[in-house]
Amino acid sequence: MLKEIRSGSLWENRKVTGLEIVLAADGAVRMNVCALEKKKESIVTVFSKAGIEALGELREVVSKKTPVSLVINGKGILHKKLLLSEQDTDKTILQKVLTGANPTDFYLQKVQVFDNQYYVSAVRKDLLDAWLKTLKEEGFWVIDCAMGPFAVNAIVPLILLGDAPADFNLNVGTFQITFGNQGTIEEVQGVSWTASDKTIRVGEEPILADTLLCFAAAFGTLIQNEIRPHASIPYVKQEREEFTEKRKFQRRLYAFAAVLILVLSINFFLSSVYSKEKSALLLQLESGKDALLKLDKLKQKVDEKQLFLEKNDLLQTSRKSWYADQLAADLPEAIQLTRMNINPLQKKKGSEEDKISFDIDHLIVEGFCKKSTELNEWMKIIKNKKWIREVSLLNYSQDKTKEAAEFVISINMN
């Protein structure tokens, strides 16, 4: 499992199968496959198998719904390390690889290894096209194609996360790859292939050496790695575009079907509910008259209370906490506040609506004081506050049995 892959760099398809086709000198064919899938923030190996020799077996293990990243190796594929310049074209490059070859007969792949040094791979178009056609007839979508062992470029950083030194050799299939101290390919040599159970650690996951290239091909395609090698083949590009459009169409179709089912379900549900609610609504209509009468009475009461609150300025935002904080800011230790009455209730004689009212912008503070001088000083301090207009002492009394005296202060606010 390879963790912490940025979802923004991933190809929109969540599954890719890497397929390596190895063409032996005696005409035999060996295929290796590795299917990868992105799950949440990890890339998981769903399936891998080496040494498949028949297309029938390939059909059994590779899903036709999953796109294929192809790697082709073996007889008929040439690899050569060259010094290239910006003036080199495919025609001049091919002449350096294979003198006298016709550029229209070959596909080329260039992999930069250092500055102007490249590994150039070439394969006859009729050879690769035949395999692409065969895979198409079998129902597989080839959306990426690479030649040689260079697909491993996509996973070199993950291999270096393990125990590999800065420069090391890596035996993969019929190739021995020599990496430099920066993880770049320096040399590629052909070696004899023998079946092996050897594994190579990629990130946190051990990968069978024979399936490493198809793993790397699938990984590079899945995360759209910029350094992954891929030959410029018009057919593969077209397959990629058609597969992408097909998946988009399928998603739109599934979304439309889901919306249609949802709409039909809602319509059926609403129809059922409506038929049941119809009779209940008729009964509610009859009882609604009484509810309207009650509503009118309640509205009248609300209007009366609203008028009362407006007349007494009780709809203003309460500032109790602010008043308390301001008064306590300069409170001496000898004084203890016990009660604060903001806009105290007044009782008046007169009509019914004037019996209850509030003394607006008035504050009554009660408490205990050990020294009258402390109280006088505090009253002088709070009288100087901008929001206070007048401070007066309403009551000051002391019980001989108690140490502190009780006081009541009246504060009029601006």
Give the SSE layout.
Layout: E1 2-3, E2 15-23, E3 29-39, E4 42-52, H1 55-61, E5 68-74, E6 77-83, H2 90-97, E7 106-114, E8 117-124, H3 125-137, E9 142-147, H4 156-160, E10 168-172, E11 175-179, E12 185-190, E13 199-202, E14 205-208, H5 212-222, H6 234-311, H7 320-329, E15 335-342, E16 345-347, E17 356-358, E18 362-369, H8 372-383, E19 388-397, E20 405-413
Parallel strand pairs: 2-5, 5-9
Antiparallel strand pairs: 1-4, 2-3, 3-4, 6-8, 7-8, 10-11, 11-12, 13-14, 15-18, 16-17, 18-20, 19-20
How would you portray this structure in words?
The protein has 414 residues and is α+β, with helices and mostly antiparallel strands. The chain folds into 2 domains: 2-232, no CATH class; 320-413, 2-Layer Sandwich (Alpha-Beta Plaits), CATH 3.30.70. The protein is 35% helix and 33% strand. The protein has helices spanning 55-61, 90-97, 125-137, 156-160, 212-222, 234-311, 320-329, 372-383; strands at residues 2-3, 15-23, 29-39, 42-52, 68-74, 77-83, 106-114, 117-124, 142-147, 168-172, 175-179, 185-190, 199-202, 205-208, 335-342, 345-347, 356-358, 362-369, 388-397, 405-413. The strands form 6 sheets. Strands 1-4-3-2-5-9 form a 6-stranded mixed beta sheet, sandwiched between helices. Strands 15-18-20-19 form a 4-stranded antiparallel beta sheet, covered by helices on one side. Strands 6-8-7 form a 3-stranded antiparallel beta sheet. The protein is elongated and about 120 Å long.
